[in-house]
Write a structure and sequence with these properties.
The complex is a heterodimer of chains A (310) and B (329). Helix content of chain A is 79%, strand content 0%. By secondary structure, chain A is an all-alpha fold. Chain B has helices at residues 47-54, 80-86, 98-101, 108-119, 124-137, 143-146, 156-168, 186-203, 214-220, 238-243, 248-255, 295-299, 318-324; strands spanning 5-16, 19-31, 36-40, 62-70, 73-74, 91-94, 174-178, 206-211, 223-228, 231-237, 305-306, 312-313. Chain B has an 8-stranded mixed beta sheet, sandwiched between helices. Chain B has a 4-stranded antiparallel beta sheet with strand order 2-1-4-5. The longest helix of chain B has 18 residues, at 186-203. The chains are: A mainly alpha (310), B alpha/beta (329).
């Protein structure tokens, strides 16, 4: 197990290297160029040349790549063109907000999905099952921004239970401010997880080893938790890991609807503003977050299923 | 001597798109204390369903009727709590495929221990000691290390030993063995059979042995019951049935096994295949494949009737079957 952990950790290195290459190439493939974004359309050739030189864009691509690597290694991701701040500062400000939003959403979706999947699977094709699946189907079919707006109107503006925007100042306030947006995000993921887990539980409940466990005369609760849930969770955990990327994408929209100063909003603003250093830095940061999530998913999966950790 | 287990009029049906399908059809048998009963038949004859019905392990969409008396109590009418005490504690089961019947994500120790936890008052230390003892009992070397391993780290034979260790954990009085050696190599098969018989002697338990292998029956069982299409068609002491089958199906089964040491004779074989659950013929279910069948067989279903030498058979033409003997037809 610890060997598997170490091996999987080492595998992160090439992944991260690949992310660096992709980010470098991607930014240079974007339409438009930073210089004209900074200077506007009517810039003088001399100014363009000066800015190009300052940004290092007059060098050859391989040289630019080496300079890029050097900068990343020293923790210098450049400065934002529009906000005039170091990109690292921006990431440090904004990324934790998005990560917290995503983590809250992920936890909420699990809290909703796991018990309901159990009820649905064990009351298969009965009223409870249909009701749970039907409700989630609606949640799943509703676009995140629309659902967000409804929740915002009802629970934020009308009832006044939750703030309609912002992030707050303390940890407690963060949670309070992020509750509605996280719930919005969680609902669609919960629907997917619930369906997946329900199917997995139905499959496992009929498995020979569950029948054998019943033949031992052990308590039904033990059978459900130890024999059914654990095996059923394996596929759901990998789905969950893969969904975190989607969740981050969803966070971009949610942050816009709920006016949360997170990485998603920053990303959108930077893309519109042709703020290349920020786009580059944020893409990298988000990619690292996703890679780490996959790593964690693998570790959890190996813990659930010892056959994986060989 | 009173039987340890009395099965009476046990029937199991599945809801099959509205029309129920009968997998086990009104069967009755006894198991004496310390006896090994072989339940024999082809695939789909209802052997495994019988075992699982006795333990009430059938899925929800099936219905089981009849009674199963275990030490005077009917397993069919017990509450779930009472049934849990019997399951794994007094009656244990081993399954055909140790590869699928052991939980792949739990170490072997956990899977043995949960039986002990359910049926004994042993402390944690006591359970640990009992786990080691059981591993020794079923002949798994290096028990201490092996207990921490997962089923996929064991060979097929060793996995079956693990399953036997689990089944025997709380000293059951009856072992229901569902084709425990079918998935194993012949040499391993012998070891496992010998192990079960040794343990039967040591622990004075009864065994119901489900198998389609007549060699296994001859080597291990005291009495046998032959199943065909969900019914028992013949039963009796193993030597008597092997010497003189009373039912045409039993005769066909025995005749299709090559024997050494005798003069070479053509093998009997049973033409056709057993009927599916949804297409059981009227009358005796075996009549389409039977050389002795008459109009009576096509119309009426014969009841299981006692014969000589402790045998019983459900056949209208036992006399002709006996007269034909086991020589080639």
């Amino acid at each position: 197990m610890s060997l598997f952990f170490l091996r999987r950790l080492i595998q992160l290195i090439p992944t991260l290297a690949f992310i660096l290459v992709v980010v470098f190439v991607l930014v240079r493939l974007l339409p438009g160029d930073p210089t004209s974004a900074i200077l506007g359309d009517r810039a003088l050739d001399a100014d363009v040349a000066r800015i190009n030189h300052d940004l290092g864009l007059d060098r050859s691509i391989p040289v630019q790549f080496v300079l890029f690597l050097k900068a990343v290694a020293t923790g210098n991701l450049g400065n934002s063109i529009t906000l005039k701040l170091p990109v690292t500062t921006l990431i440090a400000q904004r990324l934790p907000v998005t990560v917290m939003l995503t983590v809250m959403a992920a936890l909420m979706s699990l809290v909703m999905a796991v018990p309901l999947a159990f009820v649905a699977a064990l009351r298969r094709d009965e009223l409870a099952d249909s009701a749970i699946r039907g409700t989630f189907q609606v949640g799943l079919s509703m676009p995140v921004f629309y659902l967000g707006l409804i929740l915002l109107t009802v629970f934020g503006a009308r009832l006044g239970w939750f703030p309609v925007g912002g992030y707050g100042d303390s940890f407690g306030e963060h949670i309070y401010h992020l509750f509605l947006p996280a719930f919005t995000l969680a609902l669609s993921l919960a629907a997917i997880l619930m369906r997946n887990l329900r199917a997995a539980i139905i499959g496992v409940v009929g498995a020979e080893y569950v029948v054998f466990a019943r033949s031992k005369g052990i308590m039904p609760g033990v059978i459900l938790m130890r024999h059914v849930l654990r095996s059923a969770l394996i596929s759901t955990v990998s789905l969950f890991g893969l969904s975190v990327g989607t969740l981050l994408g969803g966070a971009v929209i949610t942050e816009t609807v709920f006016a949360i100063p997170g990485a998603g909003r920053l990303m959108i603003d930077s893309i519109y503003g042709r703020d290349y250093p920020v786009v580059q830095g944020m893409t990298m940061a988000l990619a690292v977050v996703v890679s780490l999530t996959f790593f964690l998913t693998d570790v959890v999966e190996a813990w659930l299923d010892p056959r994986v950790a060989r | 001597m009173t039987p340890a287990l009395q099965v009476r009029h046990l029937s199991t049906t599945f809801g099959h798109h509205g029309t129920p399908v009968t997998a086990v059809d009104d069967i009755s048998f006894d198991v004496m204390p310390g006896e090994v009963l072989g339940l024999v038949g082809e695939s789909g004859s209802g052997k495994s369903v019988t075992l699982r019905s006795i333990m009430r392990l059938m899925p929800h969409h099936s219905a089981v009727t009849g009674s199963v008396l275990w030490q005077g109590c009917d397993l069919m009418t017990m509450t779930e709590a009472e049934l849990r005490r019997v399951r794994g504690g007094e009656i244990s089961m081993i399954f055909q495929e140790p590869g699928t019947a052991l939980n792949p994500v739990l170490p072997v120790r956990v899977q043995i221990e949960e039986n002990l936890r359910a049926h004994t008052e042993l402390s944690a230390a006591g359970r640990a000691a009992r786990c080691l003892e059981l591993m020794d009992l079923v002949g798994i070397p290096d028990a201490k290390r092996r207990l921490t391993q997962y089923p996929h780290q064991f060979s097929g034979g060793m996995r079956q030993r693990v399953m036997i260790a689990i089944a025997l954990a709380s000293n059951p009085k009856l072992l229901l063995a569902d084709e425990p050696t079918t998935a194993l190599d012949v040499t391993i098969q012998d070891q496992i059979l010998k192990l079960i018989l040794d343990l039967r002697d040591e622990l004075a338990m009864s065994v119901v042995f489900v198998t389609h292998d007549l060699g296994v029956v001859a080597a291990t069982c005291d009495r046998m019951a032959v199943m065909y299409a969900g019914r028992i068609v013949e039963s009796g002491p193993v030597p008597a049935v092997f010497a003189q089958p009373n039912h045409a199906y039993t005769r066909g089964l025995l005749g299709s096994v090559p024997r050494s040491g005798t003069e070479r004779s053509p093998l009997l074989s049973i033409e056709g295949t057993p009927p599916g659950l949804t297409s059981r013929p009227a009358g005796c279910a075996f009549h389409p494949r039977c050389a002795f069948a008459t109009d009576l067989c096509r119309r009426e279903s014969p009841a299981l009737q006692d014969r000589a030498a402790g045998q019983a058979a459900a056949c209208f033409h036992s006399d002709r079957v006996i007269a034909a003997g086991l020589a080639g037809s």
